[in-house]
Design goal:
Layout lengths: L1 E3 L5 E4 L2 E3 L4 H12 L7 H8 L8 H36 L4 H13 L4 H13 L3 H19 L12 E2 L12 H11 L15 H9 L5 E2 L13 H8 L12
Parallel strand pairs: 4-5
Antiparallel strand pairs: 1-2, 2-3
Helix pairs in contact: 1-3, 2-3, 3-4, 3-5, 4-5, 5-6, 7-8
């Protein structure tokens, strides 16, 4: 928030002019702005608000406009995230993903437990092709909510997810450390390959990790593919885009 006192009092927030009604409230904001960075006494505020007819009880008289000003500022602090969220949602709906990322990142840092804001940041990161960054951000959000609220961020469940992963019938037991390790690796590398002999549960481990990706994931079954030239068509087929051609043979 900015307060300009050279000329008529003007209050701005994020470049927009905020209307401030009432002569006493405007006088209060102007007096506080002039003294930015230092304590203003009750006597000084009373002088600014009632220059000719000082009230008998200055403390009680000053308390009312100060309380109103504090509430007004708190309201602006609440309005700004909502305005940014609505603007970012509109940008994403129109396919403009890069524009809101910087502003959402800054605001999400200052409002770390605001679920809609965090979800929009993840959407913007995924839509702008920054999947690894989105994954790291997603895991940080989950840890933050678990540590501070003892709960999962419910709002993130509404993230648009793509893919064809089937819902597992049972939970993955005893592999949480492996899941966390691979999630961390995916935040730094584009390709991570879990290894192990057949029947060791690597597919289940991989699909469990993939289910946590904020943008969704596709499962491509390659067990029946024996010709290397058929790998790309199998991947495109899993994406619902079977090609009308084959890779040229060597």
């Amino acid at each position: 928030m900015g307060v300009a006192v050279s000329g008529p009092l003007e209050v701005t927030a994020d470049g927009a002019v905020i209307e401030v009604g009432g002569a006493r409230l405007r006088a209060l904001l102007g007096r506080l702005a002039v003294a930015a960075g230092r304590v203003v006494t009750i006597e000084e505020l009373a002088d600014a608000l009632w220059p000719e007819d000082r009230p008998a009880d200055e403390v009680a008289a000053v308390r009312s406009p100060v309380s109103f000003a504090v509430g007004h500022v708190a309201g602006l602090d609440e309005i700004r995230p909502a305005v940014v969220e609505d603007g970012a949602a509109a940008d994403l709906a129109c396919g403009r993903a890069e524009h809101p990322v910087a502003e959402l990142t800054d605001l999400a840092t200052r409002h770390p437990l605001r679920e809609r804001l965090q979800a929009l940041l993840l959407r913007a990161l995924v839509a702008s092709g920054r999947a690894a960054e989105a994954l790291a951000c997603f895991e940080e959000i989950r840890r933050r909510f678990a540590a501070e609220l003892r709960a999962d961020p419910v709002g993130l469940a509404d993230l648009p997810r793509a893919g064809d992963l089937r819902a597992p019938l049972t939970s993955l037991v005893g592999r949480s450390a492996d899941v966390d390790r691979i999630v961390g690796q995916l935040a730094e590398h584009r390709l991570v390959t879990p290894g192990g002999p057949g029947g060791a549960g690597t597919t289940r481990l991989a699909t469990t990790v993939a289910a946590r990706l904020p943008g969704g994931a596709w499962l491509v079954e390659l067990a029946s593919v024996t010709d290397p030239d058929d790998v790309a068509p199998a991947v495109l087929g899993a994406l619902g885009r079977p090609p009308p051609w084959r890779w040229p043979t060597r």
